[in-house]
């Protein structure tokens, strides 16, 4: 419990998206779950996120426009109470296929999402996922539900403070390699070409991309390049 309190205090001191990303990773370890994700839409419709889903799953989700069939998103839009994913409607073939693919990408078959709402239409979703059995998952949620709700609202308070302080002016600290990687991708290089120009392997390039994406709170690589450009971090 003391460690969880420490994490809440870390959230209050967070100054960048990188700080929020680090907190999701620490929470994953603290709760012993597969993934922790926080995603919000601010009052002007901009979307941001941080969490531990793989970039492959995030890219696939966006590529297939799963936002429009995802029972978690659709099921939480009009509710205020936390929801165990088993309570949602997975009856259609499209949603069953979606869940199967999510599991293949490492999301896990179990999930628990907490919708949080702020002023002027701000909306957020705090989610944890795992691979426990149904009974074990129910027991876990029963035991940790209060902590999860407190953390969800702590995340949202910090997101709102970022927005109140003009979120767009918060400049994440990217390393020179991360900046060079995004700049090359922004100029139209593919990953193999960018790796060759930087004289590194594609696997190392991927590490830089993932690190930059998390620091920028970007949903995918294209979003990371766009956010870096809008923040004045790179010029292409």
Automatic annotation (TrEMBL):
InterPro entries in the cross-refs: Sig_transdc_resp-reg_C-effctor, TF_LuxR_autoind-bd_dom, TF_LuxR_autoind-bd_dom_sf, Tscrpt_reg_LuxR_C, WH-like_DNA-bd_sf
Residue span, HTH luxR-type domain: 172-232
Single Gene Ontology MF annotation: DNA binding
GO biological process terms on file: regulation of DNA-templated transcription
Keywords: DNA-binding, Transcription, Transcription regulation
PANTHER family (alphabetical): DNA-BINDING TRANSCRIPTIONAL ACTIVATOR DEVR_DOSR (PTHR44688:SF16)
Protein name (record): Regulatory LuxR family protein
Originating organism: Litoreibacter ponti
